[in-house]
């Protein structure tokens, strides 16, 4: 099962390299901001990752959800906490979030198997 | 072709079980509401399924479209009626709905082959 | 209260005239389709108006909701039926639909006062 | 300035009463879930309010943003923390979030004046 | 009529000042990118403004549409060209774009009166 | 790699045929408009294709992005120009556009290999 984690990260990493090598300044800076925005500030890193997860879930972006799930896993969130965050996303975003919830569960389980 | 129906239902069913076994109260109640909302009331079941289909189509949720297509099929809607509902979705939601329309056609044809 | 109905229709009508007088062919044809899509076909007019209402509600377009509420009112839907359709929209689209639900209630009440 | 807080709460409260008196079961349960989802669980109330704020902001729902800003204010978040959460929303959701950011700033300032 | 241009610019300018004075680094950089992205590059400024307009219109952000309409006006686009761009937005984004089209027409006319 | 271009076009073409043979008038006219909207007018074909690309990207429709990338390629846009258009889409639509940007890069590279 954990192949879905590996596959996701390999494709993501390969294509990000292509994009960054292309040297479009605006895109590079957006990528750069994407790193900076989740660093410690008035809010701690853990809270910010959870915000990124919920934002991704309500906007129904599977790849973004996977990315933040992986970071939430690294930051030491329990499954119960992550699911609670996703329950808020499902309530705010509606039942159209449910298919993404199914894929989020699958990915989280794969992360825990690693 | 009808494998896409089977595959969809198996994954959906397997992951829904995992989600519901997890016992997050909010998510369980949303799943519960999702069943109750489509039962007979001031509007009949058929009309409600069609509403669910169009809501799913304009929000461009393929899995939700498949789920409601299957219910519309069970409720005895003709292809012409389903396509008319989807034509309204395409008009309201714009040409970005068209790729989902292609997949909806494929799924409906698979349902009819079963 | 019914001023919100009048105000909505006057602005809508005034601006639609300006748009149509401008003679952009694509826009004129979209307006034309918007009339044709809701006429009797394999589905009846009433069902189609309800589909238009739910599509508008999940896409959170207040003006589109108002337009279809007015047509639903003319077609003889009861408040209970309209609210049931909107309840499906709120479930599918999530709690972000609620502010639009509030405005839909206000508009429907204004329609009934006329 | 704080009139915008009062005005928002009065309209919201008045229309919510109308909606809840209408006794549509699905809508009542969604309202009920909306209360339950933000109570203490594996995540604390403060974190959940911030998740609700960011979900509302990326989905560009001004009224939902106002509602969660008010709760964040009550929960004791500093402006710097709230703005950091909104900065993540703006990054994830793009520059189309900026007009909502302007209205969020205006509302937060009004909350602090009260 | 041209008051809607003035009003829009004054509020936008006032709130942008508040946001930028607040010194959140992520938000400041996004604002900065928003200026840089529309400067001359492999594509000219005029084309970029039109891209910004269409992106804003399909995402149904009235304030963003107004901002880009004003820039398109300054860049010397004719009404016919702007309307053609908006016709593509309406086709891609669907009839839910129409209410925003009405407000775009009103704003463009106000720009031309100035 | 160019298999992804072939595969995309074959599925698209096969399903479009099924849809058009079905003779739903509204859908046929939307398809027809989709051809007409991108022809020479007050704006030239190249500009219109770029508008279609950016509209598709901010609405996060991979298939629509692929379709317009192919047309942009035929119209002679350079990669730098296409990437600049996509950078505006990523800024306006936010980091949730990035996964679609990755797939757009992959598709463009496949187009250039053909």
Question: How would you describe what is shown here?
Answer:
Chains A, B, C, D, E, F: It holds the Pfam family CMD. Chains A, B, C, D, E, F: It comes from Seonamhaeicola algicola. Chains A, B, C, D, E, F: This is Carboxymuconolactone decarboxylase family protein. The structure is a homohexamer of 114-residue chains. The first copy, chain A, is mostly helical. Chain A has a single domain (3-113), classed as Up-down Bundle (AhpD-like). Helix content of chain A is 78%, strand content 0%. Chain A contains six helices and no strands. The longest helix of chain A has 19 residues, at 3-21.
Helices and strands in order:
6 copies of one chain form a homohexamer.
Chain A: H1 3-21, H2 25-36, H3 45-58, H4 62-74, H5 79-93, H6 98-113
The helix content of chain A is: over 70%
- Sheet-strand content of chain A, in percent, reads under 5%
- The residue-averaged pLDDT of chain A reads 97
Which two chains share the most extensive interface? A-D, 31 and 31 residues
Which consecutive residue ranges of chain A, at least 5 long each, have pLDDT under 50?
A: none
The largest sheet of chain A is: none
Structural class, from secondary structure content of chain A?
mainly alpha
What is the CATH topology descriptor of chain A?
A: AhpD-like
How many beta-strand elements of chain A?
0
**Given the structure, what is the number of helices of chain A?**
6
Identify the overall geometry of chain A: globular
Total domains of chain A, how many? Answer: 1
What's the N-to-C terminus distance of chain A?
Answer: 9 Å
> Which architecture of chain A per CATH?
Up-down Bundle
């Amino acid at each position: 099962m954990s192949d879905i984690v590996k596959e996701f990260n390999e494709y993501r990493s390969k294509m990000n390299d292509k994009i960054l090598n292309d040297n479009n300044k605006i895109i590079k800076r957006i990528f750069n901001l994407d790193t900076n925005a989740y660093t410690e500030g008035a809010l701690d890193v853990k809270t910010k990752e959870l915000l990124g997860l919920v934002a991704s879930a309500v906007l129904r972006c599977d790849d973004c959800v996977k990315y933040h799930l992986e970071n939430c896993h690294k930051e030491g969130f329990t499954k119960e906490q992550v699911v609670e965050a996703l329950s808020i996303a499902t309530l705010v975003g509606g039942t159209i979030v449910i298919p993404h919830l199914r894929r989020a569960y699958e990915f989280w389980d794969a992360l825990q198997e690693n």
